[in-house]
Amino acid sequence: xxxxxxxxxxxxxxxxxxxxxxxxxxxxxxxxxxxxxxxxxxxxxxxxxxxxxxxxxxxxxxxxxxxxxxxxxxxxxxxxxxxxxxxxxxxxxxxxxxxxxxxxxxxxxxxxxxxxxxxxxxxxxxxxxxxxxxxxxxxxxxxxxxxxxxxxxxxxxxxxxxxxxxxxxxxxxxxxxxxxxxxxxxxxxxxxxxxxxxxxxxxxxxxxxxxxxxxxxxxxxxxxxxxxxxxxxxxxxxxxxxxxxxxxxxxxxxxxxxxxxxxxxxxxxxxxxxxxxxxxxxxxxxxxxxxxxxxxxxxxxx
Length: 302
Hints:
single chain, 3 domains, about 85% helix, flat
């Protein structure tokens, strides 16, 4: 075998062995920073209680402080490069082995990106659903005579979910000496949710110009509920188009499966004949483009 190929294989094996360790150390450092931020928040709340303010029962929750990686994460980082190593070590054809390794890692990357996207959509949906109720709690607290910061603090302590987490973060940073509007804007830029941006804009305008904050927040809460209702109506109206998209996307595979059962030699030509391979590649590319176009057509942003 050519020495260049040996060198290339050595580099690939080194990357496969070193990459999980690097990823492990980065995740460990990130978790340590999160644990440090949580300790600072707890110390800040303890000092607030000692100053005579409202006492806060600090509950130690495992989900809030994570000082080490979970066994599933460690298992994934250890097992992930093993199939690629076996492919490189036991394959007789170097180029086919590299192709298999590239496809393997491409599938892992696609699954990772899809998983992150699904988690972001779930977080966004939960946040948008909880925000109007949290604003209503803030309004009731304001009517009782509390300040806006105290009202947000109460909502963060007495509720659970993504909105409560962000409200707790706002209160913690304000208690550490940062300006309320600056902290709210920073969190809004971080999570990038339009509904929360509306909430921050209302608070910023009220801090600068004054006005009836209760009435303004009530209008904002009603507007957010109307947006959510409109989003549900659009989802119901576009459900037919979504079903059509799934059906049209899966129809070629269904037809190919039926032809494979009836006349297998017809499908075999797509893999054994050069012209059939070109047609197969063109069909896959057309299928991907069509699915993307249909997905863009049926998606409506509100």
